[in-house]
Design a protein that fits this description.
The chain is an alpha/beta fold. Helix content is 35%, strand content 22%. It has a five-stranded parallel sheet with strand order 3-2-4-1-5, sandwiched between helices. The radius of gyration is 19 Å and the shape is elongated.
Length: 226
């Protein structure tokens, strides 16, 4: 049976990959990824020579879902990886899986579990996680303020991702709408400069304003009531 694999890859430390993931990457006929330069670094570390490595992107350059479906029709096993973490979590992987399920219901779609910035951050944050809502990357403009108001009104722990150039704006909004909430920010997870910062939005905003060199990498925001 032909298979389509969704493989979790390291979010920082390249040692965070499973034996199964390495085996599947070695055996796959095609590996599709976000950025071939990033994926090549992982493959080279483990001395994996990809039979075919292609960039997947529906909107920009690279192959699209129709091309992936064509490969599967040719009985080629295809593996999907992201630059970091598990595909389908805040990236186009979900759309691709959906297209394959509709077009080729006989294809076996297998998850090869691996790291996720979401669960990694929650595991070391020390906040209530029995119930939480994950918002992914917040919208740049439309609906952004509405989400911050929702974060203010709920007792549930809320998690979202943010990029460096919007982190200060996010903290300013949290300080405006949720000044009493506990904020935990995880940055550079699993890397040498991994950092967990906790406090009110005002306290963390002050920290990053005074330490602009720390505004780099991907940020996981965790907003909790305690």
């Amino acid at each position: 049976m032909v298979s389509f694999y969704v493989i979790g890859t390291p979010i920082g430390n390249l040692e965070d990959i499973t034996l199964r993931a390495l085996r599947v990457l070695k055996e796959a006929d095609v590996i599709i990824c976000e950025d071939t330069r990033v994926t090549k670094r992982l493959l080279e570390k483990y001395e994996i020579t990809a039979k075919q490595l292609s960039t997947y992107n529906e909107q920009k350059s690279g192959i699209n879902a129709d091309k992936v479906i064509a490969w599967l029709s040719e009985r080629k096993n295809v593996a999907l990886v992201s630059d970091a973490g598990t595909p389908g979590i805040s990236d186009p992987g979900t759309f691709l899986v959906q297209k394959i399920r509709v077009a080729m219901p006989d294809v076996k779609i297998e998850s090869v579990p691996g790291p996720s910035a979401l669960t990694t951050a929650l595991s070391i944050a020390g906040v209530p996680v029995h119930e939480f809502t994950f918002l992914g990357f917040l919208p740049h403009k439309k609906g952004r303020e509405t989400l911050f108001k929702e974060i203010t009104s709920t007792e549930r722990t809320m998690i979202f991702y943010e990029s460096p150039h919007r982190i200060l704006k996010a903290l300013e909004s949290l300080n405006k709408f949720a000044p009493a909430k506990k904020i935990t920010i995880a940055r550079e997870l699993t890397k040498i400069h991994e950092q967990i910062i906790s406090g009110t939005a005002e306290e963390i905003l002050k920290y990053f304003t005074e330490n602009p060199d720390k505004i780099r990498g991907e940020f996981v925001f965790i907003v909790s009531s305690s």
